[in-house]
Amino acid sequence: MERSELKILIVDDIPENLQVVASTLEPEGYQLRFAEDGESALEAVAGEAIDLILLDIMMPGMDGFEVCARLKSNPETHEVPIIFITAKADNESIVKGFRAGGVDYVTKPFQVEELRARVGTHLKLRQREIELEQLNQAKDRFMSVLSHDLKIPMRGINGFLGVMQEQFEQMSIAELRENLRLLSQAADNFTSMVQNLLGYSSIQSGLAAFRPDELELAPIFEDIARMFSVDGERKGIVWTLDAEEDSRVFADLEMTQSILRNLVSNAVKYCDAEGAIRISARPDDTEMVIIVEDDGCGISEENLATLFNLDRDVKEIGARGEITSGMGLVLAKECVERHGGRIWVESDFDKGTRVSFTLPSM
C-alpha cells in the first residue's frame, strides 16, 4: 500500500497541537484525519478505516486512556495501532497507556524526525500484519478447496472401479470401454485439479518463477488445441485459431500456457456436440487481448458473478455432465494479474461463453 493510501487519525483537544502534528506528517504524504475530543475520535474511526491513531491523553471528558480502551474492546478497531502523544511522561502514565492497548508513545514537545520514524515503523508493522492475515486467509481457503474439490474426481474413480469389479463378468466389451473412458476422464479431472491447486499455491507463496520473454502466440494456440484434440474429436468440435504471425506478447511461457489450458479445458467441457471453439488475439495499444470463446451451454448470471472466488460453493456442469471446480479460472486470474493484465467473462446462458484476458504486447 502506498503512503498516499494510508490514513492517520490525530486526536488532540488543542487545535494548535493538531496543526503541529499535521505539519510534521503532511510532507510524508499520508491522509490525515482530525478529532478534538474522545467522542469525535470514536465516531471518526467508526465511519472510516483508519491505519494509525495518534492520541493525546489529557483531554476533557473522555481521556486518551478511555478512548484507547474502547477502541481495543471493539473487534472492528481492535487491531488499529495507537501511539500516545502526551506531556505525561511519568512511568505510571506510560504503563497505563500500554495496558490500555497503546503500541508506543511520544512525549511533548516531540522531535519531528522521531515522530515521523515512529509513525513509519508502526505503519509498516501494521501492513505486515495485514499481509500475514491475508496469507493465512488464502491458505485456509486453499486448504478448504483442496479437501473439498479433490473428493469429486476421487468419488468418480472409486465409483467406476467398484462397478467394474462387481459387474465385470456381465459387462459387454462396449460397456467396459465406456466405463474405462469415464474412469480415464475422472483421472484426468483429478490430475488437472492437482495441477491447478499446486499452481495456485506456488503463486500465493511466492515460489512460482516468473520469467517473461517474447512469445509468439500462434504456435501456443496450436499446441493448446492439439492438447485437447482427442476430447474435441469425441464432441466433434470445430476449432478456429486466429493469431497473426506477428502476434507477440511479453509474458511467462508456463503461465501463459496454464491460462489458455484452463480456459480451453472449460470451453471443451461446456461446448455442445458439433460445437465450435475459437481462440483469437487482437492488439490493443500496449496490450494483447486474447479471447477463448465457445458456443456451449453458457453460464448463468448468478454464477457469473462469483466465477473468480476461490471459496465459492457453486460447481459448473459441462455439456456432458463434466464437473468444473472453478479452480482453473482462479489460477488463470492469478497468472494474468501477475503480468499486470485483466481477465473478464461474458456469457449468454444456453448460447456460449467468451473469456478475454490481456498480456503485455511487444
Give an overview of the whole structure.
The protein is 50% helix and 20% strand. It has 362 residues and is of the alpha/beta class. It is elongated. The two termini are 29 Å apart. α2 (38-47) runs parallel beside α3 (64-73) and α10 (253-270) runs antiparallel to α12 (327-338). It contains twelve helices and 14 strands. β1, α1 (15-25) and β2 form a beta-alpha-beta unit. The strands form four sheets. A five-stranded parallel sheet has the order 2-1-3-4-5, sandwiched between helices. It has a five-stranded mixed sheet with strand order 7-9-10-14-13.
Q: Which short descriptors sum up this protein?
A:
362 residues; alpha/beta; 5-stranded parallel sheet; 5-stranded mixed sheet; 12 helices; elongated
Read across the widest sheet, the strand sequence of neighbours is: 2-1-3-4-5
Largest sheet at a glance?
5 strands, parallel
Q: Portion of residues in helices?
A: 40-55%
Count of DSSP helices? 12
Structural class: alpha/beta
- How far is it from the N-terminal to the C-terminal residue, by CA? 29 Å
DSSP strand content: 15-25%
Overall residue-averaged pLDDT value: 84
Rg of Cα set: 29 Å
The run of helices and strands is: EHEHEHEHEHHHEHHEEHEEHEEHEE
List low-pLDDT spans. 317-322
Q: How many E-type strands?
A: 14
What shape does the CA trace take? elongated
Topology:
Elements: E1 7-11, H1 15-25, E2 31-35, H2 38-47, E3 52-55, H3 64-73, E4 82-86, H4 91-100, E5 104-107, H5 112-149, H6 151-167, H7 173-204, E6 212-216, H8 217-227, H9 229-235, E7 238-242, E8 248-252, H10 253-270, E9 276-284, E10 287-294, H11 301-304, E11 316-317, E12 323-324, H12 327-338, E13 343-348, E14 352-360
Helix pairs in contact: 2-3, 5-7, 6-7, 7-12, 8-10, 10-12
